[in-house]
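## retry 2 of 3
previous attempt timed out at serialization; input unchanged, resubmitting
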Amino acid sequence: MKKILIVGAVGQIGSELTMELRRIYGNDNVIASTRKSPPSETVAKSGPFEYFDVVNKQALETVCKKHNVDCIVNMAAILSAVGEQNPMMAWDINMNGLFNVLEVAREMKMEQVLVPSSIAVFGPGTPLDCAPQETVLKPSTMYGVTKVAGELVADYYVKKYGLDVRGLRYPGIISNETLPGGGTTDYAVAIYYDAVKYGKYTCFVKEDTRLPMMYMPDCLKATVDLMQADFSKLKHHSDFNVGAMSFSVKDLADSIKKYMPGFTIDYKPDFRQAIADSWPDAVDDKAAREEWGWKPSFDLDMMTQDMLKVIGEKHKKGLI
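## retry succeeded, writing output
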């Protein structure tokens, strides 16, 4: 790959993935983009940046031709909680945007497309104790519906056109750089910020809610590892389960209390509880481990120590 376009590069994952790919492939070879939200100063000043809407195919094609793009990473998406408030917008961006990405990549004969999926593909009928790689996919959210459809469409382009399309089902992603953007697992990030700023947190799901999670360094590693994997060795393509750790909100709070003994938490579940209840508490990622060597590095306490350290330093500097 010579030129990579990241669509949706100002979100929680996109902003950090942009910098990681620029580190690997060179600043000028990774083009970041968004629809309207301004990028961080780091992303904006370190390499090329473009504004366009992924649902506008002509605009996408213009940018790709301008920069001779041969790989698209499509991070543009309306997440679960926001998607339930505006389902049609979620369908438009998540699906019509995906079709535009795949069609432009096919027409320009690009080398690769990466289309992330999510644990939101799971729902009633999926084993809740550990979701298999191959299982029932009947999500209860529009976000989940678009991710299931996206996996199927992406695999169709692999089989029909021979296009190299890859994807992985992200669990909840926890980061100390960029705030989350309207997902059901946002509590696992917000809890650290409120712990540092206020010493307490009010959670929108119950204390025994257990979901698969991943620290951002592992998220970036998984994404890059899949992008660099030998395509000929992949039996799956757009739907890899990837796991790292699984914990309840109480487990998370107890981990924080090890390093902040005065921290307190209370619970006021809202509509997001039903969404969380429809997702499994862990995933079987044997396929990812066997087909491209996936292996996480962080556990809960390692992540907690790093999160509190970084966010604490930001708080002292008045950055949060």
